[in-house]
């Protein structure tokens, strides 16, 4: 691998000092205090040097010239340097693959963990003179918004409020799927956008209807564009958007403005309705409807409530459609597992019933399939980045406070599991004595990050994935056209098939 990359990579092949310093199993205990004498200084963390450290040119050479996805470049760097290395990506980043280091990072992240911002959203906020959305906020500002949102989103039953409406959405999704006989990511994206809209806008957009209004189609297209352009910016394809309004930036601005305008309009319409009903004495909210709760939340201004909602909208649609696509892919290429899951579903709710909270609680094979899908095809390449408030020790090196740290779960999973590509949900069943349940294993498998800054929509995301899978398998057999079965996957921001997948569905007898 090392020789291959040196041969392919025009500049690195000139570096004489490159050596394989690490074996993948060489995990060290990294929880020692930062003042111990055998701790190596930050400068000694290995990584590409010379021209690769130059601003702009360095990252362009590293990620631009190889022609490979960013993950392949990172994989080669891990092969070269071991479980920790430094790389210049505009700022210096420390990149990790050892789960013990992940634990150290999360243990030291503090009360308001700092996650470096999404640069294209940051550029937008600056140019428009707007406050950053919560997803990009830091410190106290982030903390107070997140605290308010947690009350409504991270309780064990917070997603269940939407279960019955989301069942209806999934029924519509399956109806379209049955009529079409095939499915691509566009249909999955419609399903997840519709599902998140009932949470954020408290209403359906009608994206699964046969006659979608032009207005809603525009919102849908803008939502897709925002997801794609964030991925383009974050995966290094657009590097200049922070410096000038390049094409990626202009397209992003156009789409994001449309979404913000729509979200704000719906918020104020809902607020006016709440006030009217309060005056009439007919307003009722049990505190489980997110939009109504945020409107009534005394600790938030309207702008802050809007901020949370728009962060959820942009965080929620693309991510879940991509993870759902990976899950359905795994079930389609593993028909025996698909059949076992179908048996569980039919035994609990039959072939027509809705997915109820009590049935969901009993669907252990479904949950095992989703977890296994995350393990086999980890959905997000980066995303769990941190900058720590204090110095810490990672893999024996001192890492100063404020350094950008990237935790690479796909690499950690590859090292942890010899059978990384084998889809075996049974490994997660409680009846399995060998089930891994230690903290490090849980950290590398969770696609939602960890700690106070973990994904705000994780309960909703899981619920949407569960409902869609249950509803599809209740009615349809899921397969892929032969070409799609061999498609490769690569990370943009999320893991995606290199060529669009074409699922083929047939009605069950
Ligand atoms: C399977 C789908 C999803 C995946 C894989 C995913 C993954 C993530 C990850 C890795 C983070 C960063 C966590 C960290 O820094 O520790 C995150 C943050 C976030 N996610 Fe998700 N997410 C998904 C679905 C959703 C949904 C459905 C929503 C909204 C309803 C959402 C809203 C957010 C928000 C608002 C944040 C920022 C939280 C903050 O900064 O406090 N996500 N997500």
UniProtKB/TrEMBL annotation:
Binding of heme, residues: 455
Pfam families: p450 (PF00067)
InterPro entries, sorted: CYP11_CYP27_families, Cyt_P450, Cyt_P450_CS, Cyt_P450_E_grp-I, Cyt_P450_sf
Family matches, as SUPFAM superfamilies: Cytochrome P450
Residue spans crossing the bilayer: none
Heme listed as a keyword: yes
UniProt KW RNA-binding keyword: no
Keyword line: Heme, Iron, Metal-binding, Monooxygenase, Oxidoreductase
Family statement drawn from the similarity comment of this UniProt entry: Belongs to the cytochrome P450 family.
Name listed for the protein in its UniProt record: Cytochrome P450 12a5 mitochondrial
Organism name: Biomphalaria pfeifferi (Bloodfluke planorb)
């Amino acid at each position: 691998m090392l020789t291959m990359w040196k041969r392919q990579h025009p500049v690195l092949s000139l570096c004489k000092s490159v050596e394989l310093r690490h074996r993948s199993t060489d995990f060290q205990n990294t929880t020692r205090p930062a003042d111990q004498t055998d701790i190596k200084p930050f400068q000694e963390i290995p990584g590409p040097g010379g021209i690769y450290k130059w601003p702009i040119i360095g990252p362009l050479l590293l990620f631009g010239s190889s022609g490979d996805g960013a993950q392949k470049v990172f994989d080669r760097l891990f092969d070269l340097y071991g479980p920790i290395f430094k790389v210049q990506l505009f700022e210096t980043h420390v990149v990790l693959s050892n789960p013990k280091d992940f634990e150290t990072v999360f243990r030291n992240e503090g009360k308001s963990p700092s996650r470096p911002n999404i640069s294209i959203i940051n550029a937008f906020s600056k140019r428009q003179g707007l406050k950053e959305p919560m997803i990009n906020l830091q410190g106290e500002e982030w903390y107070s918004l997140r605290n308010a949102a947690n009350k409504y989103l991270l309780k064990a039953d917070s997603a269940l409020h939407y279960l019955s409406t989301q069942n209806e959405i999934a029924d519509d999704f399956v109806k379209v799927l049955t009529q079409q006989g095939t499915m691509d990511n566009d249909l999955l994206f419609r399903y997840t956008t519709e599902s998140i809209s009932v949470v954020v806008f408290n209403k359906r957009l009608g994206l699964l209807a046969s006659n979608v209004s032009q207005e809603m189609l525009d919102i849908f297209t803008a939502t897709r564009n925002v997801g794609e352009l964030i991925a383009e910016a974050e995966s290094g394809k657009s590097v200049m958007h922070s410096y000038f309004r390049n094409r990626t930036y202009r397209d992003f601005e156009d789409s994001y403005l449309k979404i913000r305008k729509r979200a704000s309009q719906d918020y104020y319409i809902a607020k006016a309705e709440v006030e009217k009903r309060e005056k009439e004495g007919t307003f009722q909210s049990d505190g489980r409807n997110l939009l109504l709760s945020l409107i009534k939340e005394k600790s938030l201004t309207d702008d802050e409530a809007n901020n949370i909602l728009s962060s959820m909208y942009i965080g929620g649609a693309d991510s879940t459609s991509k993870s759902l696509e990976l899950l359905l892919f795994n079930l389609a290429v593993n028909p025996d597992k698909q059949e076992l899951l179908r048996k569980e579903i039919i035994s609990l709710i039959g072939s027509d019933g809705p997915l109820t909270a009590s049935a969901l609680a009993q669907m252990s094979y479904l949950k095992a399939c989703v977890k296994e899908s995350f393990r086999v095809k980890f959905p997000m390449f980066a995303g769990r980045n941190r900058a720590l408030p204090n110095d810490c020790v990672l893999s024996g090196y001192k890492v100063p406070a404020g350094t950008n740290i990237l935790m690479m779960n796909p690499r950690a999973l590859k090292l942890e599991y010899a059978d990384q590509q084998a889809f075996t949900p049974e490994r997660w069943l409680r009846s399995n004595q060998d089930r891994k349940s230690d903290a490090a294993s849980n950290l590398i498998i969770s696609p939602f990050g960890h700690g106070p800054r973990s994904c705000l929509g994780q309960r909703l995301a899981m619920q949407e994935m569960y409902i869609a899978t249950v509803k599809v398998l209740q009615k349809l057999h899921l397969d892929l056209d032969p070409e799609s079965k061999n498609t490769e996957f690569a990370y943009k921001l999320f893991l995606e098939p290199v060529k669009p997948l074409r699922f083929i569905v047939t009605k069950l007898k």
